[in-house]
């Protein structure tokens, strides 16, 4: 079944994976497979003021909505373009003031409801995949997810019932929230790709964004008849960890080539070379500790001061380092958190030290054209330049650029920005 708007691909039903997308022609590395404008989207609260609410352009000279004074735009055209959706929030934000606090998911569902009411023709994204085709997985939700769904429905009623007449009934809302969460449609970035393509831990495409348009590019050679695979999750972690994340969020056990071969697991779980190697139980206990501390760190960001966070990182690294090598992914995860804390504290030397330990193992553990690797080279390059290490900075930026030109395309404004930074050093 050919796809309207996606030349060179076709949708098909896989016996093992359900709905999928495959190539009907050859795609070279870096070639655009297709682009998809968002059906609906929201900008996260912490990005407000730095990005335009309508086109997501990042710039410094944005102006704010005169009514709510919380939404920012490039110009009058962007404000007018966003008004059919923003007016829904604008009135509510003015009414609730500081008490306005729905989650991004609740805000997105409210926008989807409004979009369905005001749109008569199929949008470009619906020509690729209809919203009703998104999986809800209601039969696979545990009690915790059901409770979260009900909390979101209650929040939708609380913040929007006065401003959206005749909200759908609870059954319809339960399904819509489940669709948004299980397919990870689009919050801040556009995630229609998750619904259209199946997952692989060794993906042959990558999704990047130009404003509110998702662009899908080949990161491996794709031949006619081959299925097109995206990745739904962070690929840093070992097989069992990835499978747990996919099962929890997307309700399937991954059987991709990377999961069945486990080819990178040994390197990802590298153990420190000791005179007396640790027992398997000790290793498993440390993995359990690492997962717990990662979760604790995620929660701690909301209530601990920054020095406590850095101390937490250092203590966990010291404990894990008794068994794990520095290249172990759980060590790298905590180093990355520590680097972020150092950047926040403007401890540039500390951030650089962590970045130097992270970047090479990242290049081994992640796929060749990984945005995580590009981002690390970019951060490290800018740190080097700020610390007057010009040659190291340019070298790191060039490595980031080599990945970005494939992942984003050579005409992307992010690529142009990095090229300017390199040229400025000549």
TrEMBL record:
InterPro entries: H3K4_H4K5_MeTrfase (IPR050869), SET_dom (IPR001214), SET_dom_sf (IPR046341), TPR-like_helical_dom_sf (IPR011990), Znf_MYND (IPR002893). Its EC number is 2.1.1.354. It holds the Pfam family SET. GO terms for molecular function: histone H3K4 trimethyltransferase activity; zinc ion binding. Gene3D superfamilies: 1.10.220.160, 1.25.40.970, 6.10.140.2220, SET domain, Tetratricopeptide repeat domain. GO terms for biological process: heart contraction; methylation. The keyword ATP-binding does not apply. The keyword Disulfide bond does not apply. It is an enzyme of class 2 (transferase). Its main location: cytoplasm. It is found in: Cytoplasm, Cytosol; Nucleus. GO terms for cellular component: cytosol; nucleus. It catalyses: L-lysyl-[protein] + S-adenosyl-L-methionine = N(6)-methyl-L-lysyl-[protein] + S-adenosyl-L-homocysteine + H(+); L-lysyl(4)-[histone H3] + 3 S-adenosyl-L-methionine = N(6),N(6),N(6)-trimethyl-L-lysyl(4)-[histone H3] + 3 S-adenosyl-L-homocysteine + 3 H(+). Residues 52-90 form the MYND-type domain. Keywords: Chromatin regulator, Cytoplasm, Metal-binding, Methyltransferase, Nucleus, S-adenosyl-L-methionine, Transcription, Transcription regulation, Transferase, Zinc, Zinc-finger. It comes from the Eukaryota. Residues 7-233 form the SET domain. Protein-lysine N-methyltransferase that methylates both histones and non-histone proteins, including p53/TP53 and RB1. Specifically trimethylates histone H3 'Lys-4' (H3K4me3) in vivo. The activity requires interaction with HSP90alpha. Shows even higher methyltransferase activity on p53/TP53. Monomethylates 'Lys-370' of p53/TP53, leading to decreased DNA-binding activity and subsequent transcriptional regulation activity of p53/TP53. Monomethylates RB1 at 'Lys-860'. This is [histone H3]-lysine(4) N-trimethyltransferase.
């Amino acid at each position: 079944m050919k796809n309207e708007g996606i030349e060179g691909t076709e949708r098909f039903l896989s016996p093992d994976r359900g709905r999928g997308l495959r190539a009907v022609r050859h795609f070279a590395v870096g070639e655009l497979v297709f682009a998809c404008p968002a059906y609906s989207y929201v900008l996260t609260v912490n990005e407000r003021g730095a990005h335009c609410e309508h086109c997501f352009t990042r710039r410094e000279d944005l102006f704010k909505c005169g009514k709510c004074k919380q939404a920012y735009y490039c110009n009058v055209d962007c404000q007018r373009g966003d008004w059919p959706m923003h007016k829904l929030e604008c009135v509510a934000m003015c009414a609730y003031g500081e008490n306005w606090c729905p989650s991004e998911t609740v805000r997105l569902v409210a926008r989807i409801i409004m979009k369905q009411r005001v749109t008569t023709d199929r949008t470009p994204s619906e020509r690729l995949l209809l919203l009703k085709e998104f999986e809800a997985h209601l039969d696979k939700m545990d009690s915790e997810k059901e409770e979260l769904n009900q909390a979101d429905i209650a929040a939708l009623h609380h913040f929007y019932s006065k401003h959206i007449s005749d909200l759908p009934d609870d059954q319809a809302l339960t399904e819509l929230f489940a669709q948004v969460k299980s397919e990870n449609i689009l919050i801040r970035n556009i995630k229609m790709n998750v619904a259209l393509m199946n997952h692989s831990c060794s993906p042959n495409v990558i999704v990047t964004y130009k404003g509110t348009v998702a662009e899908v590019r080949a990161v491996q050679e794709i031949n006619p008849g081959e299925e097109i695979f995206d990745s739904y999750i962070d690929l840093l972690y070992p097989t069992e960890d990835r499978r747990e994340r996919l099962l929890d969020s997307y309700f399937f056990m991954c059987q991709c080539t990377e999961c069945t071969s486990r080819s990178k697991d040994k390197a990802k779980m590298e153990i420190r070379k000791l005179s007396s190697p640790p027992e398997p139980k000790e290793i498993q206990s440390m993995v359990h500790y690492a997962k717990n501390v990662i979760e604790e760190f995620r929660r701690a960001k909301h209530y601990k001061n920054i020095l406590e966070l850095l101390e937490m990182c250092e203590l966990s690294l010291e404990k894990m380092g008794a068994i794990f090598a520095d290249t172990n992914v759980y060590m790298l995860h905590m180093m990355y958190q520590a680097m972020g804390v150092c950047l926040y504290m403007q401890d540039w030397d500390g951030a650089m030290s962590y970045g130097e330990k992270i970047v090479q193992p990242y290049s081994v553990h992640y796929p060749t054209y990984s945005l995580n690797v590009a981002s690390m080279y970019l951060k490290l390059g800018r740190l080097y330049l700020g610390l007057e290490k010009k040659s190291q900075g340019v070298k790191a930026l060039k490595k980031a650029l080599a990945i970005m030109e494939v992942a984003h395309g050579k005409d992307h404004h992010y690529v142009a920005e990095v090229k300017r930074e390199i040229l400025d050093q000549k």
